[in-house]
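Hi D.,

Good news: the full-assembly prediction came through. Inputs first.
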Amino acid sequence: EAGVAQSPRYKIIEKRQSVAFWCNPISGHATLYWYQQILGQGPKLLIQFQNNGVVDDSQLPKDRFSAERLKGVDSTLKIQPAKLEDSAVYLCASIRTLWDTEAFFGQGTRLTVV
Amino acid sequence: AQTVTQSQPEMSVQEAETVTLSCTYDTSENNYYLFWYKQPPSRQMILVIRQEAYKQQNATENRFSVNFQKAAKSFSLKISDSQLGDTAMYFCVNDMRFGAGTRLTVKP
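Then the structure:
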């Protein structure tokens, strides 16, 4: 089966610009996660979707970050406006159901804000 | 909220030797899963091993095994016969929350 697809792989923007990342999970996977991984740190969970509903967005900086999964399939994560500290890898992961035990990860989008 | 603590930022081991990575966690759940993921320089996150909390037997996957101490909320990973390809960041995970990671280097 195809893996979790993310695009773009790399993005460089200036501070105060906006940027969007796209994730297409494995077909049939109901649960989708977005993570922010700053260099040298562990991934930080930003938001969790179950189908098209938000389960947990407690660590999403809602003043500048937004995410949607309108049809319960693919998802976009947006940053507007970007700050220098948003430079990181943004990872997407999916699992079939909340009770499944293995998450599958995309290769991430590396964002550099200059 | 669930938290995961990895207190060893970096570790190194000689090829063919054994190394143990430590992890403690905090959860209010009664049944839960714990995972170790590996992230090589390619950034691709790879599942190494998983443990279900209600199972008392420690999980084993080939050269990888865990020491799960539920009462102490401890979940360490043992890598036996270390190989150069084991060089990577290792993350302990509970409820899809990650620890800070341990950078493991296997030396020839």
